[in-house]
Write a structure and sequence with these properties.
heterodimer; A: 384 residues; mainly alpha; B: 297 residues; 2 strands
């Protein structure tokens, strides 16, 4: 089989991304009621779930450290973005959610959200990453709880929230919170953020830094013996991961009319919490960014159909009850995935458009190996 | 002064409940090096078992607190089932991380399964109130529940310590937690020992549930989640894997929490609990009474 040229691969993937982006722009301009009420909000939700899962994958899949407080960084990003946008609005920098001034504010708040979260990630990471394994999981859980608890108790962004009155009305009326129409016209922002963040993460993972952190994951002692500064790389990865989590926070603030700290806690009934992000990474495959994307989209769609699908009400009463609490379905799915395919859907492979022509051969090889394995088993049995 | 004593008493009572739960965490961690996130939900199972059995007991003319016996049995069965159906298969194929994630998933399964069962349902239920008498000693109000909670947890703690030191199964547990291969060579059935550990840990959770609902008469499906996390923090604080450590950690967390509630702000008490956890983990990564085991290359 001829090996595809690496430049051609980059070109094909780049062209695909441009196509995706222009499709989003066209979709945003064309409109339509299904588009407005269903597809666009879904894409916005997917945008932060995808980036969130991929950013946790940097820590969990590539660095091999379990962080249970990842949503804390998202909360910081969300509140930072919301407060900054409100501050600009108070000074009269923009009055309506359109035009160049608002776009600038949007950009500033997204970047600022990322940077605030990254700073916090650095502060948390330096002490926390001295521990590893179970203890790291606990301490990140603790930090996540503290972040959410402190935000809750800050007078200017707590439950009473975002200065005077409830957080919801302030954010929706004047801050970042988009209405369905604005979600349509700014759809390209969501898609652009997915593409940019994913590209940055790919570049990070493929660089010498990425190789170093994978070496740390595989064997920390061997990595440090070959001259890799283990704690530096750990903190670096943690900070970068927190940066992207902060960006997802800004996206979350954009597509929600209200901010409540309960959406960023360790567990809650909804699809967004620190544990669920872990589920996404594991199902997608630890160490596969495209796997995270696939898992985020699949789990989002599953959640969406369970919540809105007509087929649920056609089920018998007990099953209907089960589907009212979709976390049960997800967690069972997670246990099954871990039992039968501990590596997740993608393992540590990446999906690439250029690999599609090779799929028939791969599938054939897979079945060949399986039948060969079964034949060998049979033979072994017949010898006994 | 009275406020101080009152807060100390509240702290001790809370701490005793945490300690009972933390014992279960610590025993399981000691033996299979797994943070059993589902442990908190065993309390929920115990809570509901009590909710359903106390009225039955009362109608039979037996004292209500004896309902703890069926609750312990139910909890122990659930604990053993979780180990058999989820943890054991994963332990065979996976590594530490996949086991931990399975534990988290298992906790969700229990919580949401309970919510899906119609007679348990999503709404909180109010169980029959036990030990409701209150004594006043020199201006300090002490409820009967407080005294019983502290006494029972102290007795269980001592009994459990003696059990692990003297009884055959207890010795087997210590042996398995030290070295699984060597234990197998000595003729100890490792899987058998692990499952007994799960049973005992879950049974303790049922006792904790009794103590908890005596104080806060409400059972709901997510009651184990927060309670479990506090107890777990207590276990880590005291040194996970050590029984006296769990007791110490539980008391410490209880007192810190009630102190923060009394003197600072009830909504900030979480922050102080986790802050203490972080400080202790920074200074003594193995916990206050934990053994620091060096890494072998």
């Amino acid at each position: 089989m001829k090996k595809t040229n690496i430049k051609a691969r980059y070109l094909i993937n780049f062209a695909a991304l441009v196509l995706l982006f222009s499709a989003a722009v066209v979709m945003g301009v064309m409109g339509g009621s299904t588009m407005k009420l269903k597809i666009t909000p879904s894409i916005w939700q997917c945008s932060y779930l995808i980036i969130m899962a991929a950013s946790l994958n940097l820590v969990l899949g590539f660095l091999g450290q379990l962080s249970l407080g990842h949503c804390g960084f998202m909360a910081v990003g969300a509140y930072a973005a919301a407060l900054i946008s409100l501050a600009f609005q108070r000074t009269g920098f923009y009055t309506e959610k359109a035009g160049a001034a608002f776009l600038l504010v949007l950009l500033i708040s997204i970047v600022a959200a990322g940077l605030t979260a990254a700073l916090l990630g650095l502060l948390v990471g330096i002490p926390a990453l001295r521990l590893k394994g179970d203890y790291l999981a606990i301490i990140t859980l603790g930090f996540g709880m503290i972040i959410v608890n402190v935000i809750n108790n800050l007078p200017f962004c707590g439950q009473q929230g975002l200065s005077q009155g409830s957080a919801s009305s302030a954010l929706y009326a004047t801050g970042l919170g988009f209405s369905n129409d604005e979600k349509m016209s700014y759809l390209w922002v969501a898609v652009l953020m997915i593409i940019l963040c994913m590209t940055c993460m790919f570049m990070f993972v493929r660089s010498k830094y990425g190789r170093a952190i994978r070496a740390i994951r595989d064997n920390e002692i061997a990595a440090s013996a070959s001259g890799i500064n283990v704690s530096y790389y750990k903190v670096l990865t943690f900070t970068i991961s927190a940066f992207f989590a902060g960006i997802t926070g800004a996206l979350y603030a954009c597509c929600n009319a209200a901010l409540a700290t309960s959406s960023f806690s360790f567990t809650n009934g909804s699809i967004l919490n620190s544990v669920f992000i872990v589920v996404m990474v594991v199902v997608g495959g630890m160490g596969s960014l495209t796997g995270s994307v696939i898992a985020a989209v699949v789990l989002f769609l599953l959640n969406y159909t369970i919540k809105n699908g007509a087929w649920v009400s056609a089920l018998p009463a007990f099953l209907q009850n089960v589907f009212t609490y979709p976390m049960l379905v997800y967690s069972l799915a997670l246990i099954v995935v871990i039992m039968f395919r501990p590596k997740g859907i993608m393992g540590s492979r990446e999906f690439s458009l250029c690999d599609i022509p090779r799929w028939p051969g791969r599938i054939k090889a897979f079945f060949k190996a399986r039948t060969a394995g079964k034949a060998a088993q049979k033979e072994a049995k017949s010898h006994v | 002064m009275i406020t101080f004593i009152q807060f100390l008493i509240t702290g001790l009572r809370l701490g005793s409940v945490y300690a009972l739960i933390a014992l279960g965490y610590t025993m399981v961690y000691g033996i299979i090096k797994l943070i059993n996130f589902a442990h908190g939900d065993f309390i929920m199972v115990g809570g509901y078992a009590l909710f359903f059995t106390i009225p039955v007991m009362m109608s039979l003319g037996i004292p209500g607190w004896l309902a703890v016996v069926p609750a312990i049995i139910i909890c122990a069965c659930v604990g053993m089932l979780v180990e058999l159906l989820a943890y054991r298969p994963v332990r065979k194929t996976g590594n530490n991380l996949t086991c931990l994630i399975t534990a988290i998933a298992m906790s969700f399964v229990l919580e949401n399964l309970a919510q899906a069962i119609p007679s348990i349902g999503p709404d909180p239920k109010v169980p029959y109130t036990l030990f409701s008498k209150t004594y006043s000693i020199g201006g300090v109000a002490v409820s009967q529940a407080t005294i019983i909670t502290v006494l029972v947890s102290a007795v269980i703690m001592v009994a459990l310590y003696l059990f692990t030191q003297k009884a055959r199964i207890g010795c087997a547990m210590r042996c398995v937690s030290e070295d699984k291969e060597a234990a197998t060579l000595m003729g100890i059935n490792v899987n058998h020992t692990i499952i007994i550990t799960f049973g005992i840990g879950a049974g303790l959770a049922a006792v904790a549930a009794l103590m908890y609902i005596a104080q806060y008469p409400k059972v709901y499906t997510t009651m184990g989640a927060t309670l479990g996390i506090y107890a777990f923090v207590a276990a880590v604080l005291g040194g996970i894997g050590s029984l006296p450590g769990a007791m110490l950690g539980g008391m410490l967390i209880g007192i810190v929490q009630s102190g923060a509630n009394t003197y600072i702000s009830s909504s900030m008490s979480d922050t102080f609990v986790y802050l203490i956890l972080i400080v202790v983990l920074m200074l003594r990564p193995a916990g206050i009474l934990g053994k620091n085991v060096g890494e072998k290359v």
